[in-house]
Amino acid sequence: MANWRDRLKSRIKQQGTRNKWVSEKAGLEASYLYNVLKRGRTPTVDHMQKILKALGTSFSEIFDDDADNPGEVLLPYYSVQISAGDGVHLDESHKSGHVGISRSWLSTVTQAPLDRLSVARLRGNSMEPDIADDSLIVIDHAQTSPVNNKVFAFTIGEETRIKKLVVNPTNKTFSLVSANPSWPRIDNVRPADVSIHGRVIASIRSF
Question: Partner of 68 for a Cys bridge, out of 1, 64, 120, 143, CB 3.0 to 4.6 A?
């Protein structure tokens, strides 16, 4: 059975065009589609949406019914850009399509059920050098209980951020800690004020 790469190749062939032309029309480097289709590079959702727009096709037309591809899984993608700085608002309305992730790679970082995982884009430099600006982050929504010195995606007030949570056992509060020392530490955060979406278990640099 055809996987999404086969369906994308077929659409390009049907239109009588070439990978290079589609890549350039999408505003990407000329070799982008070649690397995705021939070398197995995993595309970001942003780039894939540009490619599909250049081809005049939809995300679902290419990616629906892709369970036949054992080498790759599709995880829900939050189109909102989660901030490593001051934060943004996040809710279910921000779910927008899926992103392909290598199954073998994913198995090295988590054994969580796939329906408990999602992907979002990180903006800001407060988690550098641990997590770079513009990275994709994988969130495990099964892990919503705070673990000391681990990185979580959470909402505080109306803003969603990712930070390292440091649990203060003496007064039962959190400290929100950035990896970048230029960003100040936020202490004495009450657990009741923090809604944890899940633990950040991996990051993927954009290309």
Answer: 1
Pick from 67, 77, 92: which is nearest to 43 by CA? 77
CA distances (Å), origin 47, targets 29, 61, 62, 99, 184: 11, 16, 14, 10, 34
Identify the structural domains of the chain with CATH numbers, from first to last: 1-69 (1.10.260.40), 71-207 (2.10.109.10)
DSSP H helices in 39-83? 45-55, 59-63
Report which of 130, 185, 119 is spatially closest to residue 153, judged by C-alpha positions.
119
Can you tell me which residue has the tokens 């054994």? Answer: 111
Which pLDDT tens digit goes with each residue over 102-111?
A: 776 777 778 8
Task: Give the bridge partners for 198, in sequence order.
Answer: 153
Instruction: Fill in the amino acid letter for 117.
Output: L
